[in-house]
Design brief:
There is one protein chain. The chain is an alpha+beta fold. 32% of the residues lie in helices and 24% in strands. The chain folds into 2 domains: 49 residues, no CATH class; 30 residues. The chain is built from 2 helices and 4 strands; from the N terminus they run αββββα. It has a 4-stranded antiparallel β-sheet, with no helix packed on it. Strand 2 and strand 3 form a beta hairpin. The protein is elongated. The protein starts with 7 loop residues before the first helix and ends with a helix.
């Protein structure tokens, strides 16, 4: 059950949200859109104009992000995947440095 490297950090430590323009409308409140800067998952919240309460929330995931119930991994599995990714990236970084010095 391989984990796509593009999503490892988000699945392990959570999304890195930033607010962005909403290109959708709702009759139930005010649209508030946030997007993850790493994986581009989009969260669309409908917020009550008068109270600020969350009325509803929907997520829109990039292709390859969602996993079937048979592929569910534990938090420990995600942490191990992140550690492996960091080791791989460190090796690639060192390898790139050596090539540049030649």
């Amino acid at each position: 059950m391989a984990l796509d490297d593009r999503f490892t950090r988000c699945r392990t430590i959570g999304h890195a949200w930033f607010d962005c323009d909403s290109d959708w409308k709702t009759d139930m409140g005010v649209p508030l859109t946030v997007r993850c800067e790493r994986c581009m998952t989009e969260r669309r919240d409908t917020v009550s104009r008068s109270t600020g309460d969350l009325v509803q929330r929907h997520y829109f995931y990039p292709d390859g992000y969602k996993r079937s119930w048979e592929e569910v991994m534990s938090r420990s599995d995600f942490r191990l995947a992140l550690l492996s990714l960091r080791i791989k990236e460190a090796r690639q970084s060192r390898g790139n440095g050596k090539q540049a010095a030649s």
